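Journal club side-thread
Mid-discussion, someone asked how the predicted structure for our own chain would compare to the paper's figures. Pasting it here so we can look after the session.
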Amino acid sequence: MNASQRLLADLLERGVYLERFAVKELRALLPILEQAHEEVLGKIAATGGEWTQAWLAETAANIERIYNAAAEKLSGQLHLDLEPLATEEAAWTKSALETVTGGLMVSAPAASTLWAGIKALPAAGGSTLGMLCTALGVNATTDVTAAIQLAMTEGETLDQMVRRLRGRVVRRASWRTVDGRRTYIPGTYSGGVMTLTTPQAEALARTAAMHVGNQAREAVYAANADLVKGCQRVETLDTRTCLVCGVADGQVVKSGESRTMLPAHPNCRGVWVPVLKSWRELGIDADEVAPGTRASMDGQVSEYETWRDLLEKAGPARRVEILGPSRARLYAQGYPLEALVKDGRVVPLAELPKRGAA
């Protein structure tokens, strides 16, 4: 196993840790949204069911204020929890590099500047973490306001409107001991418009953890540019991997060349694995180092099963699950995967016949 393969194995294992961190972070974010939902429901209940356009205008303004405040709290909670994660991830990456290179001196960015740089960078799709929090608040405002308007149009009672917003109670909120701490567990609801914020919060927590992990590692790679000659993109191999990221899996980019910043979109789990230089590329006579270490630093990329390999070996049903029925049929007919993606997006089906199969 060469150095890049060993580092890839370490990074994949570290990814499990970041997933667990995202779950813990979600527990911190959901109570903020729960409090906002309860405040909105309280505003509605206080009217006694007198639905007028003047009331709607006032309520819409209150809803916007409530969810904007919640978005600010979400951002503050993320920054509070993610700053120490950035420092931890940079230290872990430094240690991992030192291990796979056989003890070479590895530099790490200053903790005082690391977080400032990370929080200013786009976290996904060109949006910073703060912008993603703001978008969640805007989405909640839009969805809840639209549901209220629809309830008014259909002449619903107060109870009916609340059910439309909150949904059916699956589990009531409670306090539990989690990881040795008394933690608020929000209630679980089904079918209401307000439940839409839960998967959005989950995506936010996962994206935030991946963003900080990726950028902390990138900062360490940049601080050790003399050891790195490029990066290889590695994606998670399952049906949740989007087509755009799947096609890019295994891509190798030389140092100095432009490459996609990861995560590429909310919920993206891709990572860039550094391709380390060989001993001779580092100007070191390989015969001067220990045989085991000498063999590991060969300057080669990691060899692993890519997303394309997974797709090629998959059966028809599995391909439909991954690509969808129409694209799976085109793929089976010999249509190249590259033609299904253009400029970082999936090409609409209506445009595919014009592009032709290879």
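Post-session note: Strands lie at 167-171, 174-178, 181-185, 188-191, 228-234, 252-254, 271-276, 341-342, 345-346.
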